[in-house]
Amino acid sequence: xxxxxxxxxxxxxxxxxxxxxxxxxxxxxxxxxxxxxxxxxxxxxxxxxxxxxxxxxxxxxxxxxxxxxxxxxxxxxxxxxxxxxxxxxxxxxxxxxxxxxxxxxxxxxxxxxxxxxxxxxxxxxxxxxxxxxxxx
Length: 136
Description:
With about 140 residues, the protein is of the alpha+beta class. The chain contains six helices and four strands, in the order E-E-H-H-H-H-E-H-H-E. It is globular and about 45 Å long. The N and C termini lie close together (about 10 Å). The relative contact order is 0.20.
């Protein structure tokens, strides 16, 4: 059981929910260590948020929302079901096309870099071909 990325005429990619959550955290961490912590909290949400961390979250999130809209779309998207329109795919692709996950952050020994490549491939295809990227 996990997340499946599909689009008409394309290979299907599948990741576990846990691995996808870890990937999103690592992707955010490549931008900013504190942003990675925020995404980890966002995903887990069962940890209490201190007042200081809440202020940091607001400060960083406001700046990052404007700076990396495509990554915010990817991070906040429901990974259990739904879809991304071609326009959203374009924004995500533009945000991640030149990114890579450094070895010291890629705790899965290349696994997160592979996931990033899959996301690049799928979002580029869907944006260029005006296709919907489906989550199931």
